[in-house]
Specification:
The chain is mostly helical. Helix content is 72%, strand content 0%. The longest helix has 18 residues.
């Protein structure tokens, strides 16, 4: 009986546990819209999408890189806070995005 109950609990966890959280779905949609904007050379829209990403995760190095790249391609000045705020270095991706941004000319 315990085995059947345990299997039931595990099955229900597997059946409902694969759904992505809403914020993750929104992040994926926004990154996709950002990339589409860059490809279409709609850099103002790309700036807007990167700002949305930063509002979802203010310390995201990925979002910060996207923000920087959109401004660079739009030939717009970055806001003062951009270089005042350091890059996060908690994960491998953080290091990767900061190296990319620095190679593209970002300070910090």
């Amino acid at each position: 009986m315990r085995v059947i109950l345990l299997l039931g609990v595990l099955w229900s966890g597997l059946a409902f546990g694969h759904e992505l959280p809403d914020i993750t779905k929104e992040w994926i949609r926004t990154v996709s819209a950002y990339k589409e904007s860059i490809v279409q050379a709609d850099y103002d829209k790309a700036i807007e999408k990167s700002q949305s990403l930063l509002s979802m995760d203010p310390v995201s190095s990925e979002a910060k890189l996207y923000f920087y790249l959109a401004h660079k391609l739009a030939k717009k000045d970055l806001p003062n806070w951009f270089n005042e705020q350091g890059w996060a270095y908690g994960h491998l991706d953080d290091h990767f995005y900061s190296i990319l941004a620095k190679e593209l000319g970002a300070g910090g």
